[in-house]
Design brief:
single chain, alpha+beta, Elongation Factor Tu (Ef-tu), domain 3, OB fold (Dihydrolipoamide Acetyltransferase, E2P), four-stranded antiparallel β-sheet, 3 helices, 28% helix, elongated, MFP_Cation_Efflux, transport
Length: 258
């Protein structure tokens, strides 16, 4: 009995690139929130906002009224009228000095008239600015585009300078905090791209890793923050995740790839 070895065959190798995928649950969190405060003492009027309402930058949402504001406005207006009167008199005096110089007016008197015009003009600008500033402070406006997250005062309530009125989450001020477990979590690097899949069934949103948060206790995990990456027009992480609609922040899987 004889045994013959088979003919060797060469099988071509195929190169396969493997891209690991990481999946974790991510929560939408605000980067920071703005607390809008009163700049003057008074009573709130026309404050009809509710948590979840959206505001655009510069939009008025309430105003301040009361005896103190009325008195302050009246004083500022009176000061402006008086300052304008003095500025007019100074300008008339300067024109008169210029007409009579040098026959009846000497150089010192002419210079004094010019200095009076400059002084009253500066005082007039200051009075205008003070009145405009006071009028602006009694009309409460949103400093940025955003969403109301909490009301700190009620319509009709008396507030003092510095009193909080509402808390605003600026548009675009959200990120995702995703928790990854295991040794492979060390391989997640800044710039990796992935998808955030909202739990409410909306379309996935492209994200990328922008920060890695170190472990804060020996048995803890490593968390990675994601930010919106090339979002679709008209869509934000906030709206898609329903994170600010008077309900708990929903948890959604956030797979990442290099």
């Amino acid at each position: 009995m004889s045994v013959h070895a088979g003919t060797p065959r060469n099988t071509p190798a195929e190169t396969v690139t493997y891209h690991p995928r990481y999946m974790a649950y991510a929560a939408v969190e605000p980067l920071q929130q703005l607390t809008i405060r009163a700049d003057h003492a008074g009573y709130l009027k026309d404050l009809t906002l509710r948590p979840g309402d959206r505001l655009r930058s510069g939009t008025p949402f309430a105003r301040l009224i009361g005896p103190a504001i009325t008195a302050a406005l009246r004083q500022a207006e009176t000061t402006l009228v008086e300052t304008r009167r003095r500025a007019t008199l100074a300008a008339d005096s300067l024109r008169s000095a210029q007409r009579t110089y040098p026959a009846f007016t000497n150089r010192r008197e002419l210079n004094a008239a010019k200095a009076a015009v400059a002084s009253t003009h500066a005082a007039l600008q200051q009075a205008k600015t003070a009145l405009d500033s006071l009028r602006a402070r009694v009309i409460l406006r949103s400093p940025a585009n955003g969403q109301v997250t909490a009301l700190r005062a009620a319509n009709g309530e008396r507030v003092t300078p510095g009193s909080p009125i509402l808390t605003l989450l600026p548009s675009g001020g959200l990120w995702l905090r995703a928790a990854y477990y295991g040794g492979d979590s060390q391989k997640i690097t800044l710039g990796m791209q992935g998808r955030f899949i909202p739990a409410d069934g909306n379309s996935p949103i492209a994200v990328r890793v922008i920060r890695k948060i170190p472990r804060y206790r020996p048995t803890a995990h490593r968390a990675s923050g994601c930010s919106p990456y090339r979002p679709q027009p008209g869509r934000t992480v906030s709206g898609a995740a329903s994170s600010l609609k008077a309900q708990p922040v929903k948890q959604s899987p956030c797979p990442l790839r290099p």
